[in-house]
Amino acid sequence: MEIRWSDSLILGVPTIDAQHRELVARVGTVVSAVDARPGDVGALLDFLGEYALSHFATEERLMGLHAYPESAASAHREAHQQFVRAFSGLRYDVDVEGMTRGIVDRIQKWMVGWLMEHILGMDHALAMWIRSAQVKGPPHAGTWLLPRADAIEVLAVAPRGSLARAGLKPGDFIVRVGGVTVAQLGVKVALGLLRDPVDGQVEVEFHPGADSAHLERRTVTRRRAAR
Ligand SMILES: [Fe+2]
Ligand SMILES: [Fe+2]
């Protein structure tokens, strides 16, 4: 797997974007060294690992500064730690085993794949939060919905907003909007329907408190229609 910076990786938070650009460059250097200068891979991994650690620390500091909801923050920190553990194992194995096929695969597939998936997933969610906090003031004042794989996680609800009035709470996982699964609708459409329901109201189904054994159904009504 090749890795090169592309504009599709821009998340809109300059500090994070600048660091990702550098991170992608360092990963790219390791990947090209695998064939061209295998003897340098260990040192280049050290150079990359050092930067990854300071980048993770920056993101984790931003989470605190912007009051990122703890459920999302702890999952994100755990993902960073998992990477650090796996990366340390890889670094050790490079010294012990040298550039075996397995090591090359871990560098080219696992490491590159992890970084791409992480930037476009968890980092993207964090960046959206930071950007929305900048636009709308303190995040806990408003409703915040986090796109997940096949659901939308409710991270915060505005006290008198439409979701709060429908009885949804932080921690709920919305899986259907208007009778259609979030997976089928796509997160963008589902969020649009929640914000601006067709005919002023829409039915949502959700797992309360992420409890997948229970499903509840409520009607979300737009404020104007409720009056
Ligand atoms: Fe991250
Ligand atoms: Fe990141």
Q: Summed up, what is this model?
A:
This protein is an alpha+beta fold. The chain is 59% helix and 13% strand. It has 8 helices and 6 strands; from the N terminus they run ααααββαββααββα.
Summarize this structure as a short list of keywords or feature phrases.
6 strands; alpha+beta; six-stranded antiparallel β-sheet; 227 residues; binds fe (ii) ion
Could you explain how this protein is built, in words?
The protein contains 8 helices and 6 strands. It folds into 2 domains: 7-137, Up-down Bundle (Four Helix Bundle (Hemerythrin (Met), subunit A)); 142-226, PDZ domain (Pdz3 Domain), CATH 2.30.42.10. Strands 1, 2, 3, 4, 5 and 6 form a 6-stranded antiparallel beta sheet that branches. The longest helix is centred in the middle third of the chain and has 36 residues, at 101-136. The radius of gyration is 21 Å and the shape is elongated. With 227 residues, it is an alpha+beta fold. The N and C termini lie far apart (55 Å). A hairpin with an 8-residue loop joins strand 5 (201-207) and strand 6 (216-221). Helix 1 runs antiparallel to helix 4 (101-136). 59% of the residues lie in helices and 13% in strands. The chain has helices at 14-36, 41-65, 70-97, 101-136, 162-165, 182-185, 187-195, 223-226, and strands spanning 144-147, 152-156, 173-177, 180-181, 201-207, 216-221. The relative contact order is 0.10. Bound molecules: fe (ii) ion (2 copies).
